[in-house]
C-alpha cells in the first residue's frame, strides 16, 4: 500500500510508490530540466527508453521509487545496493522536477529510501554523491544525518566546466547483541 504524507506547504498530497508505466513520460521530461540536469549526473536529452528501463526494468540491486503529486510523477529516488563485502552499503539517487522544489517531495523520497535501507535491507551505510554547489540538496541530506566525507575535485563536467562533488554518507550503528 502506498505511503501518503500530508504536505505542509501546499494543499496537495505526496504519494511514494513503485514506478508505473505512466510515470515514464513525466519523469523523462523532468530529467531534461535545467535544475535536475545540473543537480544530478544526467546528460541533456535523456530519452524515454532510458527512463522506461530504469523505472520498469531495474537491475536486481536497484529499487526505484516515484513521488506523485496530485496524480503526476514529479520525483524519483533509487536505493542501489552493493554486493559482496559491501552488501551493508547502499547508494541514494534522487531528483525532483524543477517546478516542485520546496514542497517536501525530496524529503518524502529520502524518508522512503531510508526506511527501505534501514528496515528492509538492514543496511549500515547509505551514501551519495552531490554537486558541491547544490546547497538545497546538501541541506536536505544533512537534515537526515548525512555528513560530508570528502570532496571529489573536478570529478564532473557540467556545461564544459569541471565541478566538484561531495561524498556524503549516513552511518547507522551496529545493532546491539541480544542478551542470552
Report a brief summary of the structure.
By secondary structure, the chain is of the alpha+beta class. It is built from five helices and eight strands, in the order E-E-H-H-H-E-E-E-H-E-H-E-E. It has helices at residues 24-31, 34-39, 48-56, 105-120, 135-143, and strands at 3-6, 13-17, 62-69, 72-81, 89-96, 125-131, 147-158, 161-171.
Describe this entry's structure for a reader:
The protein has 180 residues and is of the alpha+beta class. The chain has 5 helices and 8 strands. It has helices spanning 24-31, 34-39, 48-56, 105-120, 135-143; strands at 3-6, 13-17, 62-69, 72-81, 89-96, 125-131, 147-158, 161-171. The protein has an 8-stranded mixed β-sheet, with helices on both faces. Helix 4 (105-120) links the parallel strand 5 (89-96) and strand 6. Helix 1 (24-31) packs across helix 3 (48-56). The longest helix is centred in the middle third of the chain and has 16 residues, at 105-120. It is globular. The termini are far apart. Residues 1-11 have low confidence and may be disordered.
Low-confidence stretches: 1-11
Strand content: 35-45%
Q: Note the run of SSEs as H and E.
A: EEHHHEEEHEHEE
In angstroms, what separates the terminal alpha carbons? 37 Å
The secondary-structure class comes to alpha+beta
Query: What is the averaged pLDDT score?
Result: 90
Main pleated sheet = 8 strands, mixed
As a percent range, the share of helical residues equals 25-40%
Shape: globular
| Order of strands in the sheet with most strands | 1-2-3-4-5-6-8-7
Secondary structure tally, helices: 5
Number of E-type strands: 8
Amino acid at each position: 500500500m502506498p505511503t501518503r504524507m500530508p504536505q505542509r506547504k501546499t494543499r496537495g498530497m505526496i504519494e511514494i510508490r513503485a514506478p508505473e508505466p505512466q510515470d515514464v513520460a513525466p519523469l523523462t521530461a523532468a530529467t531534461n530540466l535545467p535544475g535536475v540536469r545540473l543537480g544530478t549526473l544526467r546528460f541533456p536529452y535523456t530519452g524515454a527508453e532510458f527512463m522506461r528501463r530504469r523505472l520498469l526494468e531495474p537491475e536486481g540491486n536497484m529499487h526505484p521509487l516515484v513521488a506523485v503529486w496530485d496524480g503526476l510523477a514529479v520525483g524519483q529516488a533509487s536505493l542501489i545496493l552493493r554486493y559482496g563485502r559491501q552488501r551493508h552499503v547502499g547508494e541514494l539517487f534522487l531528483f525532483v522536477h524543477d517546478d516542485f522544489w520546496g514542497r517536501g517531495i525530496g524529503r518524502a523520497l529520502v524518508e522512503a529510501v531510508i526506511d527501505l535501507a534501514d528496515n528492509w535491507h538492514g543496511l549500515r551505510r547509505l551514501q551519495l554523491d552531490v554537486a558541491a554547489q547544490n546547497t538545497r540538496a546538501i541541506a536536505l541530506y544533512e537534515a537526515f544525518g548525512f555528513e560530508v566525507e570528502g570532496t571529489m575535485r573536478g570529478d564532473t563536467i557540467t556545461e564544459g566546466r569541471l565541478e566538484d562533488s561531495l561524498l556524503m554518507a549516513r552511518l547507522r550503528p551496529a545493532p546491539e547483541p541480544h542478551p542470552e
